[in-house]
């Protein structure tokens, strides 16, 4: 079993156990706010189940119908999770509105607080671990699932505070107020996950990944990589697909160009944390490149080297050689 599937299985099993604990707390207390927390746990379990399948699918090798692999399913998984969270938040707000007009009497609050506190600690710990591992292996699904568990832990913490206030003040309407607040918080986090998944499915540029690629480009930079431009990065699951133009001396033979592009691919794959597939277009240098070209003993140099141009996310993503962007 892969690392991703082991991690999501941990999330799924944790979600099932904690969901049962929260519903026990709800039946003990008859608290609308605890029902809010328990309802979100149903979403955790359903979302983790779908995430488990999506990770299995994303790990399948490329085929004729999916030449870039199946990694995009992770964005769809996050979309489903975000959608479920959004629906859960809506249901919670509707129920809170109903109980505002038809309140119910709370009981066994201390026992409910104890059970919810246990679930909050476990959710936060597992969520923190999943987010850390998800970022390390670049799995959006694992990271989103960890974020969801942490959101659940924060909402449980707010719930505990509210239940203590109910005990102290004997004001039952606080239960409904907490439910409204937590429902709105859950709704907002569902929206954020939906937004993130849609941006991935639409191949929206991820500035963080672009910055990381540019940093590795500068670390691995060779003198005959005269410039890099028209850089585009796409994310498919935990893999990156990058295409760009690399300017090389125009007197290189086809074999030399091939060797330099192979070095480019190897060095960047070695530095980047994700498996990366490169599609590199080789451009010949022009006389206008000479003032920032560091190739020594160049037989066709038309002017002396003056200044190295630093590669940044701004100039490497433009579709032009660097002398045109000065």
TrEMBL record:
Protein's UniProt name: Cation diffusion facilitator family transporter
Entry keywords, A to Z: Membrane, Transmembrane, Transmembrane helix, Transport
Domain of life: Bacteria
Pfam family membership, one: Cation_efflux
Gene Ontology terms for molecular function: cadmium ion transmembrane transporter activity; ferrous iron transmembrane transporter activity; zinc efflux antiporter activity
One GO cellular component term noted in the UniProt record for this chain: plasma membrane
Record flagged with keyword NADP: no
Swiss-Prot/TrEMBL GO biological process terms: intracellular zinc ion homeostasis
Domain annotation Cation efflux protein transmembrane: ranges: 9-202
Subcellular location(s) per record: Membrane
Species for this entry: Sphingobacterium hungaricum
Sequence intervals crossing the membrane: 7-29, 41-57, 78-101, 113-131, 151-167, 173-191
Family named by the database record: Belongs to the cation diffusion facilitator (CDF) transporter (TC 2.A.4) family.
Bilayer topology annotation: Multi-pass membrane protein
Residue ranges constituting the Cation efflux protein cytoplasmic domain according to the UniProt record: 212-285
């Amino acid at each position: 079993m892969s690392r991703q599937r082991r991690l999501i299985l941990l999330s799924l099993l944790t979600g099932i156990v904690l969901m049962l604990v929260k519903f026990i707390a709800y039946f003990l207390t008859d608290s609308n706010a605890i029902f809010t927390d328990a309802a979100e746990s149903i979403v955790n379990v359903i979302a983790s189940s779908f995430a488990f399948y999506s990770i299995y699918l994303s790990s399948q090798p490329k085929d004729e119908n999916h030449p870039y692999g199946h990694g995009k399913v992770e964005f769809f998984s996050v979309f489903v999770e975000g959608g479920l969270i959004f629906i859960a938040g809506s249901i919670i707000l509707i129920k809170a509105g109903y109980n505002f007009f038809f309140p119910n009497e709370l009981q066994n609050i201390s026992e409910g607080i104890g059970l919810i506190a246990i679930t909050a600690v476990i959710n936060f710990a597992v969520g923190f671990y999943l987010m850390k591992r998800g970022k390390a292996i670049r799995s959006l699904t694992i990271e989103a699932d960890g974020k969801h568990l942490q959101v659940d832990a924060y909402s449980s913490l707010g719930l505990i505070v509210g239940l203590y206030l109910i005990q102290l003040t004997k004001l039952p309407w606080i239960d409904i107020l907490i439910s409204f607040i937590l429902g709105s918080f859950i709704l907002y986090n569902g929206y954020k996950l939906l937004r993130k998944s849609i941006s991935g499915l639409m191949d929206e540029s991820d500035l963080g990944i672009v910055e990381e690629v540019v940093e590795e480009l500068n670390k691995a930079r060779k003198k005959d990589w005269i410039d890099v431009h028209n850089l585009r990065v796409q994310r498919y699951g935990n893999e990156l697909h990058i295409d760009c133009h690399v300017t090389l001396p125009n007197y290189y033979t086809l074999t030399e160009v091939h060797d330099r592009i192979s070095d480019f691919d190897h060095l960047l794959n070695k530095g980047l944390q994700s498996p990366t597939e490169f599609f590199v277009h080789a451009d010949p240098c022009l006389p206008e490149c000479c003032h920032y070209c560091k190739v020594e003993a160049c037989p066709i140099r038309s002017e002396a080297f003056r200044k190295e141009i630093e590669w940044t996310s701004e100039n490497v993503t433009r579709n032009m050689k660097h002398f045109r962007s000065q």
